[in-house]
Amino acid sequence: MIILALNCGSSSVKYSLFDWSTKQTLAKGLVERVIVGDSFIVHSIPNREDYRREKDCPDHKTAIDLIIRTITEGPSAVIDNIDDVSAVGHRVVHGGERFTCSVRIDEEVLTAIRSVQHLAPLHNPPNIAGIEAVKAVLPKVPNIAIFDTAFHQTMSKYAYLYALPYAWYERYKVRRYGFHGTSHLYVSKRAAALLGRHARDCNLITMHIGNGVSHCAIRNGISIDTSMGLTPLEGAVMGTRCGDIDPAIPHFMMKMEDLSPDEIDNLLNKKSGVLGITGRFTDRRDIIQAAQSGDERCQLSLEIESYRLRKYIGAYLAAVGPLDALVFTAGVGEHSPLIRQMALQDLEHLGIRFDAQRNREATGRGEKVISAEASPIKVFVIPTDEELVFIEDVAAILNGTYTDHMTFPYSFAQPDYVPR
User: Which of 164, 223, 304, 400 is most buried, by CB atoms within 10 Å?
Assistant: First the structure.
């Protein structure tokens, strides 16, 4: 069984081709600058030099076709025929309240995904474009949707409801949904394995910190709260999203600068966060370098972001109860020792004691403990592997063995698992 995993963004398509029988990644890659022009693909095969090709991709269908040609033709080929692909797994950011697990995509499911695309305007439209592209290019291949929101459907009503008119929930399902579910699922299972326990016996805080940022409070292996809300805009300071703000600010600024609803939505989603603070950067590496060179706004950005991270740690400690471990993951969480250090400083009174040397040495070195030996609460850096969650969900759905995440025997939850 060969599975193609796709993650379609607004101007990119990430992919991974996995052979389920050998449990090996055959290839992975990225098509960049879809729609915007000067498109190209970078295709990686284990133990071989990367393959790169420039090819204009005015839409996602063309990008998918480029991926298919790359994996089946010429020096970049890793399979003989596209008919060898058994299924395609798609990341879908928002499933609304309906979807609590991964599902096979039919017209009814696709219609339901379209019905909530306004809740994730940066993500769901390209996710849908990717599904439609595969259906057009590979009409006989099953498509599976893996939802970012599914992992968080275990939250209690008091955790996911807002203090708004209850009719808004009844009519429009306005509530907290949460995102990055596959990442939180993966790293929570890995943290439990590193602790030598089953996930149901672990209380954790998982912190996915990349361009998008979300945190999850996990009690006995299930999500009880998460920082993103109705949309991915709520929560921590992010690359371009503002996170938590006074709800009166958008209305105030609309009046002050004569902005339309769409304009203010664009500003909050695409022009805020660390980009809004620094005025020029979303990449934390650029921010750190500029801060070290004396840029005061970049230094302020680091302080604001890490302060918000620290506040969430404290809040989720209160929500979860006795904590076993705290986990950093995703691009910034895995690769920025400075931001981890700033987020963890002065938390000894909460039982979190980090080791500065371990923290410095952890970056880019796989799963690592960065807490001090005597720390009551372990702190891990765990590289996430959302694609593996996709692949195992797809294989299980095709085989008819898929169950809820607490009972399904994910390979990465086993004590003898070696990360890819």
Answer: 223
- CB neighbour class for 156 (10 Å; exposed up to 12, middle 13-18, buried from 19): exposed
* pLDDT digit string, tens, across residues 214-250: 999 999 999 999 999 998 899 999 999 999 999 999 9
281-332 per-position pLDDT tens digit: 999 999 999 999 999 999 999 999 999 999 999 999 999 999 999 999 999 9
Q: What class, spelled out in words, does domain 2-147 have in CATH?
A: alpha beta
Residue 60 backbone dihedrals phi, psi, to 5 degrees: -70, -30
Amino acid sitting at position 207: M
> Is the Cα dihedral 50, 52, 57, 61 positive or negative?
negative
pLDDT of residue 161: 98
Chain centroid to CA 305: how far? 18
Query: Are 34 and 28 in contact, with CB atoms under 8 Å apart?
Result: no
Averaged pLDDT for residues 74-95 = 91
The domain locations on the chain are: 2-147, 198-381
Cβ pair 215, 236 in contact under 8 A: yes
What is the structure's pLDDT at 146?
94
> What is the distance between the alpha carbons of residues 57 and 63, in angstroms, rounded to a whole number?
6
> What pTM does this model have?
0.91
Mind listing the pLDDT tens digit for each residue in 94-128? 998 889 889 999 999 999 999 888 777 778 888 99
Long-range contacts of 78-84 (CB under 8 A, 24+ apart): 78/17, 78/26, 78/27, 78/45, 79/2, 79/17, 79/26, 82/138, 84/2
Residue whose token pair is 């698992």: 417
pLDDT higher than threshold 90 for residue 191: yes
Torsion angle of the four alpha carbons 301, 307, 310, 316, in this order, in degrees rounded to the nearest 10: -100
Instruction: Report d(CA 148, CA 243) in Å as an integer.
Output: 18
CA distance 360 to 339: 11
Q: Is 13 helix (H, G, I), strand (E, B) or coil?
A: strand
CA dist., res. 252 & res. 258, Å (int) = 10
Would you please indicate which residues are annotated as catalytic (active-site) residues? Answer: 148
| Phi, psi values for residue 221, rounded to 5° | 85, -5
Element (H, E) at 307: helix 296-320
The hierarchical CATH code for the domain 198-381 is 3.30.420.40
